[in-house]
What does this fold into?
Amino acid sequence: MLENFSPPYNATVCQRLLDAGAVLVGKTNLDQFAMGSGTVDSIYGPTKNVWKCKAGGSSGGSAVAVASGVCFGAIGSDTGGSTRNPASYCGVVGLKPTYGLVSRHGLIPLVNSMDVPGILARNVDDVVSILNAVAGHDKQDSTCLTKPFKKISLFESSNYCSRLPPANKMGIKGLKIGIPIEYNCEYLSDEVLDMWDEIAQTLQNEGAIVKEVSMPHTQYSIVCYSVLNQCEVASNMARYDGIEYGYRADDDHSTEKLYAVSRRTAFNDIVKNRILTGNYFLLGRNYEKYFNQALKVRRLIMNDFDNVWEDAQLLLTPTTLTEAPLYSDFIQKTNRDQCAFQDFCTQPANMAGIPAVSVPIKLSKNGLPLSLQIMGRNLSEPMLLALAKYIEHLVQFPQYVNFKQK
Ligand SMILES: NC(=O)C[C@H](N)C(=O)O
It folds into this structure.
């Protein structure tokens, strides 16, 4: 749909990177309109992971570019996990900032109420550098927070522990970390579960107060996300009509025909499917039953988070449920529903608007990256990233390319 489209202005994230002195190397591959969790449904074909498995998605190109050392860091988008999922499969760090902390101006919208530009880099310090450059109010995005952004500093001294923000000056002693039991779901692999337990235990040994917490509405999150996603997609995709911009079919017998043929030709099946179901949910007779109902469930999911902060400062969960499927297995055996299920642990943060980061932990028995996710309350990025850095330091994940030594 947007082949050969050249944007007439820079997105705020890009402009801020340029203003900070960054060199923009290029655009990377993704699932069409960021719909997907594999980077297999792109007009340019699939993105292959350096680890010889599925790259994850939708920002799989960004994650592979970072993992392979093509660039220092990359921007993805994160509506339901599209930064954290590929970060996890590619063994890099992926941050979904608090909704409204980084401007969406210039981002192609998928689900306006959940979209955020995400950041991918090989380590937490690099993520922080990029976040410091791009975060903060932007009057071009009415959903951007107006509160001034205070740059995060995790670098203050050479002594590791004192680099953590004031709340954690003594390392992680006393830090309350919640383990939401509902994230231990049916399709979680034993290997991911063991890794999750092992890190929780290690953090407890390091002085954190690690305890199980309950978030009962997590089980409805995939369905709720799907309904809301498809409704917003149906409305957002209406702008691609073959007239204002984007692909225009060579069929102008009537305006209606031009719309229909342009859209039929230039959208893939995933996008068409979401538009169709979204419009179905939004029909007058269905609106209450699906869209409004999903909004109410979203509120319950948000309430689960509001309640949990009484017991925990941060939450620790898996990022994806398994290691990345091998690319060949994925194409042949995995259907799109299984693929969407890989976002089980990442979607709730988007519905609640809270920040979340995926940190690579270790390699699986098959030699593929496994990661954990940390979530925190709105604007808790300094603490969230401090714990991410603490874990990074503990686990010493073997990066595919060590850029600095190259
Ligand atoms: N951009 C995203 O986070 C998209 C998400 N994986 C989805 O397919 O809806």
Observations:
- Residues 156-170 have pLDDT under 50 and may be disordered.
- The first helix runs from residue 12 to 19.
- The pocket of asparagine is lined by residues 34-37, 58, 77-82, 110, 229, 343 (CB under 6 Å).
